[in-house]
Sequence to fold (349 residues):
Amino acid sequence: MTGARWSGDDALFQELKEAVSGPGEVADRMLDAAKAAFTWRTVDTELELLALAYDSALHDEALVRGAALAGPRVLIFEGESISLGVEVGTQVLTGQLVPAQPGHVTLMTPHGWVGETEGDDAGFFLLARPSPGPVRLRCHTADSELITDWVPL
Amino acid sequence: MHNPGTVPELVAAAVQGDQEAWNQIVARYMPLVSSVMSKYRLTAEDAQDVSQTLWLRLVEHLSEIREPRALPAWIVTTTRNEALRVLATRQRCVLVDPQTGSDLETPDHCELDDELLREERQQALRDGLAELKPHHRELLVLLMTDPPMSYEQISQQLGISVGSIGPTRARALEQLRSTSALKGLLTTRNDYEYRR
Fold:
């Protein structure tokens, strides 16, 4: 199989040569940020990761096309027994925990924590929208500690 | 050339909290991330967001990557998804034609996939080269210099006879074909989707 991909030594050698001459220089700032990402490693095994399951910006073509008519961007993070929906407004993030339950919610960027709030009994909460870049939410409820995937706003 | 360790070793060490192993993963795969991003018309700030999101995601999902050799495919897929996500959020503001409502920029997905496959293959070749025994790797590296070195110069530098360069090159390429990186390339063929 592999032999079929590079039918001869010369073809393989030529592509190896192209591969090591490589895609060029990489911005130092990007490398530094990538290395620093490691400090966000979750070591707390009690923390449940809520994976990004839906993002209207990616999944809903109608929203992309009808920009003027479209509502705010919607993100849904799913865990095993709980989900978290977030509507991204121009000024605020409106969130809701499902099933409805109160909780303490923290908003984080790669530079650290940028906001926190208490969700009400229906699971609703409001946070000021941060500047563009990756964010994640951490929620502390009566019986769980949750953290979402990173998603760029 | 310093042998930086295999990808499975680096992933295992990073899962255990080894920052240096993580840095090596970053150094090894940042060219792949950059080249995937270069297929999209991202601003410098958006590229920074895509890259940062990719690496933050990988930190979180590293322990779930069951087959470390599938890492390049995971990186390509995730970078592409995040680039499309960032473009989609920006396009909602700027790149939709108000007359027709159609997107002004529609990436050609077939062309894109060909490019991505090529990048993934090249990453596997770089990884494969790192896996080779030093004498095989050194010979290939010298043969690839630009401008090219003569067989006499290579012979002096490596202390091998001119006559053995051809056969050694053939053996080195044969070894390259059987490295885990190139074998991994074949086993990840149908493994493109972002898996959790």
The mean pLDDT of chain A is 85. Chain A touches chain B through 55 residues (CB under 8 Å). The CA atoms of residues 52 and 102 of chain A lie 21 Å apart.
